[in-house]
């Protein structure tokens, strides 16, 4: 699906706001999900807050979930599973799309807790977890094409992640780089370079007061 078109359809469908941030704040019920999973996510988010796990915000999770569903993506990649909070938001959308997600993390305890949490969320059949440095793990793949990529690993490695995912992007792939606003000292060199990349549409979207994402779509 054309992301620009679906995004503008989405915005047009919101009757409650003049700004994107307000829209997200007032329209949280836009993502329908079973209440058991919603409760589990709330508990996991709280656990993350109490244990300093840098999970996306709830709104960030909802945004990712909607984006995957809006684009009809079927083959996803996440760099940086942490304990699986964003993975669950993504996986729920991929399940609805009859798709699959691969998620990579290089911290063993984190990788184990992500697998456990996806099991608890009843979504483990949607996700294939990989343990290791994403830069090495991805290089070892062949015959892979992703139509959706969420990058949330080490901020200083964003350019390296960008380079390594190139051969694996499907036509019209959507790529979301998290946290591009709140860590300028870490992401600025990447942002300076990426804006000169041809063949992709790009937009930076503030999601909430926590941070924003750089969204890219492959235009050829
Ligand atoms: C910000 S956290 C991810 C949060 C998660 N996406 C969420 O919202 O629930 C970053 C994670 O990326 C992992 N990570 C960072 N650089 C990585 C790399 N090069 N390869 C694999 N994992 C990486 C870290 O171990 C950490 O768990």
Could you explain how this protein is built, in words?
By secondary structure, the chain is of the alpha/beta class. It has a single domain, classed as Vaccinia Virus protein VP39 (Rossmann fold, 3-Layer(aba) Sandwich), CATH 3.40.50.150. 45% of the residues lie in helices and 21% in strands. It contains nine helices and seven strands. A seven-stranded mixed sheet has the order 3-2-1-4-5-7-6, with helices on both faces. β6 (200-206) and β7 (212-218) form a beta hairpin. The structure holds S-adenosylmethionine (SAM).
* Helix/strand order, N-terminal first: HHHHEHEHEHEHEHEE
The distinct bound ligands, ions and cofactors come out as: S-adenosylmethionine
Count of discrete structural domains: 1
Instruction: Enumerate the strands of the largest sheet in spatial order, edge to edge or round the barrel.
Output: 3-2-1-4-5-7-6
Task: Give a brief description.
This protein is an alpha/beta fold and 220 residues long. It is 45% helix and 21% strand.
Supply database-style keywords:
220 residues, alpha/beta, Rossmann fold, seven-stranded mixed β-sheet, 9 helices, 7 strands, globular, binds S-adenosylmethionine
Write the layout of secondary structure elements.
Elements: H1 3-13, H2 20-26, H3 35-50, H4 58-71, E1 75-79, H5 85-96, E2 100-105, H6 108-120, E3 127-131, H7 134-139, E4 146-151, H8 158-165, E5 169-178, H9 184-194, E6 200-206, E7 212-218
Parallel strand pairs: 1-2, 1-4, 2-3, 4-5
Antiparallel strand pairs: 5-7, 6-7
Bound molecules: S-adenosylmethionine.
S-adenosylmethionine binds next to helix 5, strand 2 and helix 7.
